Structures are given as C-alpha cells and as structure tokens.
Amino acid sequence: MLDKARYIVVEGPIGAGKSSLARRLAERLPAETLFERPEANPFLGRFYQAMDRWALATQLSFLFQRIDRLSEYMAGDPARRVVSDFILEKDPLFAALNLPADELAIYQRIFDAMMPPTPPRPDLVIYLQARPDTLMERIRRRGLDAERRIGEAYVQRVAERFTQFFYQYDASPLFIVDAEVLNPVDHDDDFELLLERLRTMRSYREFFAYAG
Fold first, then answer.
1. How far out from the chain centre does Cα 102 lie?
2. Which residues pair with 126 in a beta bridge?
3. Per CATH, which fold does 7-208 belong to?
4. Is 48 left (phi over 0), alpha (psi -120 to 50) or beta?
5. Which of 93, 124, 142, 189 falls 20 to 30 Å from 23 in CA-CA distance?
6. Residues paired with residue 207 on neighbouring β-strands, in sequence order
7. CB-based contact 121:53 (threshold 8 Å)
C-alpha cells in the first residue's frame, strides 16, 4: 500500500504526534509535505483561554487555512508524492464539538460553500490513537505557549470525536496505529515496523498495535 500511495495523510487528536510522524515519513519516502499551520491561526491561543468566545473565529481561520493548503495541492502535479497532517473532512468535527447550534449552522453554510466539488481523496490515511492522559502528557512535554491552558476534559472530548469519526470513515484505506504501545516518532524500531506493515498492508482497514 505505502509504495503505491501518492497522497498520504497522518491524522489524530492533538498530542498524538501526527505532524511529527508525517514529517518523518515524508523524509523517508521522500515526499513533499502539506501541513496545517496552527501557529498561523491568530485566535488559537485565545481559544484555549476562552473557548466560548473564540471558537467560531478559530474554527473559520482553520477552515480557510485548510482550504488554501488543499488548493495548493490540487493545483500541483497530481503524480507527485505528498504527506499531509490533515484531511478537510475532519474540520466539522471540531466545529460540532466547540460551537453552539446557531454558530454551527453559520459555520456549516460556509463549509459547504467552500468545499471543493471533488476534493482529493487520500490514497492512505494513518490514524494515531492514544488515551487522553497520554495525549495530555505529550502536550505538556512539548510546552507550546498556546496550549498551556488545554484541559484534560477537552482533550478527552476531542479523542472521543476522532474515535467516532474514524469508526465510520471509509473514504480511503485506513491504517490505525495504537500510539500507546508504538512510538514511531521517537523510536526507530517502531518506525521501521510501521513502514514494514504499511508496505504489506492488503486490507482496506487495518489496526497495528504490536511494538515488538
């Protein structure tokens, strides 16, 4: 699966290590990267301090950014190899989690209007799973200023929404990684195991939890 895939996405909740794994994977293949830029969202730090006040602005800023990044991909050579750390279809996941009904309705109209008629479908999606306490530990360890006020209750809700989203996801081949027992970002052996399993992937959906 991995050797044939041209458009690869690594996804997962905050703290799962999706961007770090996507970067390491892109370096190995090699491939271009297509990443979110949370540091470019001017509302993110304020959102974590006052979620009710800043949720809509934060969500729309991410939506515009993701649309712009996806447009860059669609305008390029379709034969090139790209590794991304987001899929656009997960954007409404956060909107539904953070917005009240009236603001969610506004967001949904904007999302529907901006959604490409035929969005590119990843050839492979790698989904990193981890428990909320593990995610919180990793968030605290990386020590980003914008994330200092993130609470475990919020991280738990995000993790649950991701679980629900990918339980139903069938748009692309899905490789689910148990990031509790595997750390392909920091451990070379785990990374090599991951590559091996991705190359031999035959099913449309597989789960990987063996750490060796």
1. 26
2. 10, 175
3. Rossmann fold (3.40.50)
4. alpha
5. 93
6. 176
7. no
